[in-house]
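Before a colleague's protein record goes any further, I have to sign it off. My question to you is simply how this chain folds and whether the tokens agree. I do not need a full report, just your reasoning and any doubts. This is what I was given:
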Amino acid sequence: MKTFLYSLACSIFFISTYSTNADAKQAYNLTNDQGAKNNPTTILDAYLKLKNALGADNGKNAAAAGNELVKAFAGFDQTRLTASERKTYAEIVDDAKEHARHIGVNADNIPHQREHFGLLSKDIYDMIKLLGAGREIYVDSCPMYNKGKGAIWISEVKDIKNPYFGKAMSTCGEIRETLH
């Protein structure tokens, strides 16, 4: 009986340890280490500032958010990612940084910022699929942008606030997906 109880206790310990480690790995998303310099939440937050600036037709704030996003990408600590995740993250970020840089240096050219924002939004979507969002966010879509080809963006609110057309067509679009 003692052997059975000892075995049961050890089994529960190992299962809970494995479960905790597996949960911790899955939970490594955009909310971990809230105060850390290398917190991936800063990437999503900078992106959302950028999205909101474009929705308000504010190229200067969009440029500032684009520059903030470049810094957030550079500061992200990849050491907790697996080799496969690091590779995928690097592929996503290489493109995303380039788009964020273009947005950052074109404060007086909102149409150009919006072109890069469309491509950046796809990269951010891919990053969220890789790392998780850690909170409820929405993948919105505008069917009219890019000559009817459409484009997505990530939003923190259910209300549609279109960054591609700004104030001219602020409610054009729909929620396509909800992510956590």
